Amino acid sequence: MLKITNLCVEADKKKILSNVSLQIRKGELHVLLGPNASGKTTLAKVIAGLCKNKIKKGQISFNGKIITRLKPEKRAKLGIALAFQHPPAIKGVKFSDFLERLSSRQGKTNLEKMPDFDRLSSQQGKTNLEKLSSSQWETNLEKKRKLFDKMPDFDRLSSQQGKTNLEERQKPFDRIGNTKQYKQYLQPQLLERDINVKFSGGEQKFSELAQVFTLNPKFAIYDEIDSGVDIKGLEKITKMIKGCFSPNNSALIITHNGSVLEFLKPDMIHVLLNGKLICSSSDWKKVWKTIKRYGYEKCKECKLFAS
Amino acid sequence: MKNAKNVNYLQVDHKIKQISEKEGVVILPSPEAWKKFRWSRKWFSRNPKEGYFIWVKKQIDFPLIVCITTASPKISQNLTNLLIIERGIKVKANVTCNADRNNLCGSHRASGRLVLKDNASLEYNHIHKWGEKDFVNPEYEFVLGKNSRLAYNYKNLFPPKYLLLKTSVYAGRNSSANLNIVINSINSRMKLKDELFLKEDGAHGLIRLRLVGRKNSRIDALSRITAESEGRGHLDCRGILVDSNSSITLVPKLAAKNKNAIITHEASIGNIADEQLDYLRTRGLSEKEAIDLIVGGFLGN
């Protein structure tokens, strides 16, 4: 799906990435590790189409198409999305409006995003007790239970928002796609605020995830999506990434967190040190163990994995 | 003009097409009001030749809608307007001034006075939409009585070639004025002058200026708050320059003539950060779409 060959990136005459080669196939989940200022974010941005003037050598291809000099918006249309580590604030643009805009660009109409009211009402129509036999009642109950499972966690939402009106609570979600899995994790208040304006660290991460999932990308890069998030939040984020991952898409996750690795169980793990990809392995447990015990410098000397 | 049936006053070029009076509101052409109501002469800034006179005597439950349009080439409108709101009445007015076509080379001058008597309240939404060769010069004065409230929102959707916009507010005891002026400039020269006079104790106000200098435009804005009594005021002027061939000059001025007055200001001019553009572009928006979105957010659209 994504192939990077001998990529060299320079800024202010300083080498940031040198001869980085990486291949991510369809359905694969890769993790990129590395100490601070090793060039991880630059690599993520270069793949997304930013800092392309700084590319001195090398090639990036996506699904067989060379995209090294392609504009970021064109790459987004091809199916590449980046969740920023530090997203900028856009004042005056409501988050829900922005998500709606992104969603509409994916070719979905508002009607398609609305809940299936006909189906809901037909289910409700069968609850007439007099007409039901006991077996029918059981089946119907099971159907209702399934239906209930699909509903958002209203108790949680109401405790967050303090609103009692069901429609009011449902409203912001309807606009951005009712079937999206992430909606149960997003606070409705967040949707009514300007993009990233005074968002906390955790809120920024959920906002980034929501945007990336709305774009429905073939290849997603999550740049330190776990940083600044509490334990519960981290669990939610990993669940969201895992839940939205399918054999038809792939992802690159930049992280410093071992528990993320344990939950996601990546197909490949890479270590970037001083702009060089010094290690790529499918045995993420061993790599993580080495880094945890000896640090990144030792990783460089590791005979098992050093390329 | 489409859907004009709800318009209270509609003027096209020099011709009054429609006046729709409702209970509690007197709407007349200004020259007629000048003759009919002698008392109005002290409020008119000059002997009017054309324009509207609106006198709200009783509480109304609908917004006043006024449309002034230029439809013929090289037309020159010279309006003298007067809006009077009686004591304790709350009014919302939507006033649209526009050119029917983009290439009329018209001229639109308006000299207006809006009087809010004691405890009155006015939300005045002033929308401009002009052709690229028009000359526009509105000069409005707001006189606020005791405990009155004014919210003035000016927005230009399509800028003219030249715009001279002058707005003055005279705030009485415990009155409040909120001026929100949004200017989008493309291929145009604009001069703005906003003044807020805190005439009596307890008067307070805010001038909020949002300017965008797009392609080949020049904006000179002078905003001033003068506190003649124990009042409070704040100036908030911000500009974004999108094009390198454009310029914005912001001059915020504060003048205090009372030692207990508190007046403050903030002013800034900047460009759109590359970081913001890059961010939106990775979401699939083109550079132009990203600029439009950021500018729209800045202008509060």
Task: Please summarize what this structure is.
The complex is a heterodimer of chains A (about 300) and B (about 300). Chain A has helices spanning about 40-50, 70-80, 95-105, 110-115, 115-125, 135-150, 155-160, 165-175, 190, 200-215, 230-245, 260-265, 285-300, and strands spanning about 1-10, 15-25, 30-35, 55-60, 65, 80-85, 90-95, 195, 220-225, 250-255, 270-275, 275-280.
Structure commentary:
The complex is a heterodimer of chains A (307) and B (301). By secondary structure, chain A is α/β, with parallel strands linked by helices. Chain A folds into two domains: 1-89 and 200-307, P-loop containing nucleotide triphosphate hydrolases (Rossmann fold); 95-195, no CATH class. Helices cover 43% and strands 22% of the residues of chain A. Chain A is built from 13 helices and twelve strands. In chain A, the strands form three sheets. A six-stranded mixed β-sheet of chain A has the order 6-9-10-3-11-12, sandwiched between helices. Chain A has a four-stranded antiparallel β-sheet with strand order 2-1-4-5, covered by helices on one side. Mean pLDDT of chain A is 77; it is low at 108-132 and 150-179. Chain B has 301 residues and is mainly beta. Chain B has one domain (4-299). In chain B, 9% of the residues lie in helices and 54% in strands. Chain B has three helices and 19 strands. In chain B, the strands form two sheets. In chain B, strands 2-1-5-7-9-11-13-15-17-19 form a ten-stranded mixed β-sheet, covered by helices on one side. Chain B has a nine-stranded mixed β-sheet with strand order 3-4-6-8-10-12-14-16-18. In chain B, strand 1 and strand 2 (15-19) form a beta hairpin. In chain B, helix 2 packs across helix 3 (287-299). Chain B starts with 8 loop residues before the first strand and ends with a helix. The model of chain B has no long low-confidence stretch (mean pLDDT 93). At the A-B interface, helix 2, strand 7 and helix 3 of A face helix 2 and helix 3 of B.
